[in-house]
Amino acid sequence: MFLGNGLVATNPFSFLILWHSKIMAKQDYIARYFNIITKLSRTPYCSYEDLYRTLENEFEIYALRDEDAFFSFSKRTFQRDIREIKNILGIDIVYSRANKGYFIEQNDFASELFLKTVEQINSFNALKVTHSLEDIIHLEKTPPSNSDFLPLIIQAIQKKRKINFDYKKFGENEVTKRTGSPLALKEYKNRWYLIVLEKGSQKVFGLERMQSLMISTDKIDSNIQFDYDEKFQHCFGVISPNAEKPSKIILEFNAKQAGYVKTLPLHSSQKILKEENGRTQIELTIYITTDFVAELLSLGSNVKVLKPQSLINQLKQKLQENMNQYN
User: Fold this and answer.
1) C-alpha to C-alpha distance for 80 and 276, rounded to whole angstroms
2) Do the beta carbons of residue 2 and residue 229 sit within 8 Å?
3) Domain ranges of the chain
């Protein structure tokens, strides 16, 4: 999910951790900021009076959590909110005299993806407003690893500065010093990953493997071109081969697993080829990476790979290695 300014997240709830610690302590501010952004994303050129009515309605839900809370949204408060939203999220809210209303200046933030992200964040906040739901709804409590580096990385991306960081791969003892141009952030399975241009090649680094990070005084080359959708168009997970071509993959699922795959596709390229005798065949066009192989292994006997043979051979080898551990 693309959030603008090079930020990408598969789980939009994690976007909440980007807030400054001073703001984190003031949940009413957070709720108000997101309600303002949501309103202007849906309905640009809103007057102050329109925003006032929207926030007043939303406050009734927020008040369920705090009976002593009171609604206050003056024009002076709104101007302060505009400044804070720009400082924290980099979103410019400006007034159009021609249209007699406020709007979000960046087109990225008016996109459907951004609006969906904001709505999901607001849904998350709505679930938290009353203690009566605590025994009914249980949300993920483990934050992505090493999220402390996120504010620095975001600042570097927005200011177009290079970064210096120490990196240690899992299973290795050596710590390497890296320098590169940060391009985008991506979250996958509760882990943050940073896409960096290093020595002419786009690489992906896990934040939990970073041991230090500093913003450099060196600026990113203005000629660098990065298209997130193009880079990850055929990817499953975070691994994006730089040279390989994607493969046509045909999978066959049993009736039970097919229901899950139909409602939550494995990839955007997924299409159903055939359904008969309780079996469903689908086709994907993706890279065959360790992420994808691990996903297939996790599905066990619920899935069978029909093509290509190279993927079938990989799975056989992995399954044999697993069996050998128990001999």
Assistant:
1) 61
2) yes
3) 2-133, 147-226, 247-324
Q: What is the pLDDT along the chain (327 residues), one digit of tens a residue?
A: 444 455 544 444 444 444 433 434 355 676 778 788 878 877 889 999 998 888 877 766 555 455 555 566 788 888 988 888 887 666 789 999 999 999 988 645 444 545 555 555 555 555 454 444 556 555 566 655 566 788 788 888 888 899 999 999 888 889 999 999 999 888 888 788 999 999 888 899 999 899 899 999 999 887 888 888 888 889 888 888 766 789 999 999 999 899 999 998 999 999 999 999 889 999 999 999 998 999 999 999 999 999 999 999 999 999 999 999 998
Would strands 7-8 and 2-4 be described as parallel, antiparallel, or unpaired? antiparallel
Helix (H) or strand (E) holding 251: strand 247-254
Q: DSSP string covering 56-71, please?
A: HHHHHHHTTT-TT---
First to last CA, the chain: 44
What is the Cα–Cα distance from 254 to 265, expressed in whole angstroms? 15
Query: Domain 147-226 belongs to what topology?
Result: SH3 type barrels. (2.30.30)
DSSP letter, residue 3: E
DSSP string across 213-259: EEEEEEEPPTT----HHHHTTT-SSS---SSPPPEEEEEEEEHHHHH
CATH 3.30.70, applies to 247-324: yes
Distance of alpha carbon 297 from alpha carbon 319, whole angstroms: 8
Cis peptide before 308 (omega within 30 of 0): yes
